[in-house]
Amino acid sequence: MPSNAERAAEPAADHRKGPRRRGGELEIAILAATLDELTEVGYPALTMDRVAARARTGKAAVYRRWSSRAELVVDACKLRGFADVSIPDTGTLRTDVIALLRQMSAKMDSPLGGILRGLLAEMARDAELAGLIREHVHKAGPQTIQTILERAVERGEVQAWVLGSRRASVATDLLRNEFLLFGAPVDDEVITEIVDDVYLPLVLHPTPNPPGG
């Protein structure tokens, strides 16, 4: 079986012999082709030419919609719901956070998780990609846990100042780091350790003199 590098060196097959697609149908075909290319060759080897050929269209049609491959890749991730998670509402902070981390872990363990891991690794080398992923893809966990914390504040579990502190996103940060270092699935025991041993002590029993307090 050829390696990713060998596949990247091969010219993409010309798929334009099939029926031409336009409008929304063409956009979806381009985004789907982008995900297929990411799976086969990864972000470093992905080109607009290869995506266009796989989507059975011309490169100009791709550039009319996306000015860079980073924008194209992030929109492809959004199409497949990389950042879509529901907001747990179990009635307690602990079970809400565990439910959220389990959802995120399941996403990481899906076929799309490998793509996401590769993109996260590329963020250090591509500033545009890094900014777009932080803004459009990777914000789901921190935003959702912020809502979870707001509910915990309303219930009296958490002090309000925690919402604006760095400790607010520690649980999702640790899950992401576990995923990057060791891959998926993230073991359920690890999730409960993150919540019980690290996160809850930080947000339920904070230091008596919080910043600005």
Strand and helix layout:
Elements: H1 4-9, H2 23-41, H3 48-54, H4 59-65, H5 69-79, H6 93-108, H7 111-122, H8 127-137, H9 140-155, H10 170-182, H11 188-204
Describe the structure.
There is one protein chain. The model has no long low-confidence stretch (mean pLDDT 85). α6 packs parallel to α10 and α10 (170-182) packs antiparallel against α11 (188-204). This protein has 11 helices and no strands. It has helices at 4-9, 23-41, 48-54, 59-65, 69-79, 93-108, 111-122, 127-137, 140-155, 170-182, 188-204. The chain is 63% helix and 0% strand. It has 2 domains: 4-79, Orthogonal Bundle (Arc Repressor Mutant, subunit A), CATH 1.10.10.60; 93-204, Tetracycline Repressor, domain 2 (Orthogonal Bundle). The protein has 213 residues and is mainly alpha-helical.
What is the overall pLDDT average? Answer: 85
How far the N terminus sits from the C terminus, by CA atoms, comes to: 60 Å
CATH superfamily of the largest domain: Tetracycline Repressor, domain 2
Number of helices: 11
